[in-house]
Amino acid sequence: MSRFEQLQKLVAQSPDDPMTHYVLGLEFANQERWDEAIAAYDRALEVDCNYIAAYYHKARAEIRGGWRESAVGTLRAGQVAARAVGDEKTWAEMQDLAETIA
Length: 102
Known about the structure:
Blueprint (H helix, E strand, L loop, with lengths): L2 H11 L4 H13 L3 H14 L4 H14 L2 H18 L2 H14 L1
């Protein structure tokens, strides 16, 4: 069974675990399958809107897929969520990424 198949199996077994969706998104991004990566990150955020890393990686996928305006919105939402949970490191990483878009 491939790594991708294993991840899909984990997602099926634990659909309410944001980490499984997030890791699946990373795998899609590694394969440059931007739409699917974004959908996986969206699902992670549906399950847990405070899964901060998903915002950052979703924005990166949006940038690479050519959706810069969407990435800006994702980063703004992610920064709000990061501040709410006190994750200043990820907030700053999102700020740095946002500045590369401008």
